[in-house]
Design brief:
The protein has 383 residues and is an alpha+beta fold. Helix content is 26%, strand content 21%.
Length: 383
Amino acid sequence: MRQADFTPSRRAFLGATGTVTAVGLTAGCQSDSARPDRSADPAPTPPVSPTGRYQAGIVRPQPAQPNLLAVVADLVDAAPVRPLLAELGRAVRALTTGSDARLMGLPPGDLTVTIGVGPRLVRTVDPALPGAQDLPRFSRERIAPEARGGDLLIQICAGDPMVVTVVAAALLEQAGDRIRERWRQSGRRGANVPVRQGLAAPRNLFGFVDGIVGPHTKAEQRRHLWLAGPAPVAGGTLAVLRRMELDLPRFARLSVAEQEAVFGRHRDTGVPLSGGTIASGPDLGAKTPDGRYLVPADAHARRAHANVVGVGLMLRRSYSIDGPAPGLLFMSFQNDIRTFTSTLTSMDNSDALLGFTTTTASATFLVLPGFDGQRPLGDQLFR
């Protein structure tokens, strides 16, 4: 990560301290004039432009940054939404370029901020627009009223967790008393596992590679991810957030073979139980010599498969969370809300994985189309 004015980051400081300690232990002394070896310092993190046809933080960057904070809030009734979104867009541009003093001197690095609006606000424009529908209720939910729905999503991602926290404070200060926070959730992505050229996916808390299947090519994203129309929402997408507690102790008591049967993939490689490579789609018709499906009938890879459900692909990004119980912040992006609702309905009926989850927060948002200096954030929708 780039160091502003050569001020060392906490990571660089700790790295330098470790170098001094190691040399002191082996040589017994360290010259006052000696300098730590910086040959192993990480390269500067490339910035991610906040402007363009689509908002950053969905397919850019790839792979996604390891740290996330999602803030869900309500708009105070008297507050007009259009100037608020325009202000937030200007603040995002300043923060991501490092020109906002509220960064406290931290380099923004690969910071992205993604903003969406909830169904209530979309309905004020046109109840027929994508994003105007609330999510239905599903089984295995234990959701407090304040953790269901919301008017505003602010998703902040970065390689540096301190940047995430500082940027959240700056944006909430920018919004002031025009919004009221409902809930927030921070999370981290595990180590990335290569899937194919230009694509990697992390492991989740269950130990399995997460987010292998999705609209990863430009053609798939045009078909399944981005909204093509009507004009006020073109260039946006629909986001779903689901915070879940995971029953890790019970899952860990299963044998590895039993765990793999729950997911329908091998835990160590991510390869489907039907064979192939990690990037291969599962062969749902493949059977053992005695007639059993290689990918079990209640395996997650089968119950959530787009062909089984009869819907398009969703871009899934999951973040591990810790506290008060270990869990997962599940996020999906798609251009048709039925992609998510039909998939979860299929899983609700018979998906072995859901037996280890309890959903504690749920919301959906229209992620606004991209913006720039001439097109303020949200201007297409709230004219």
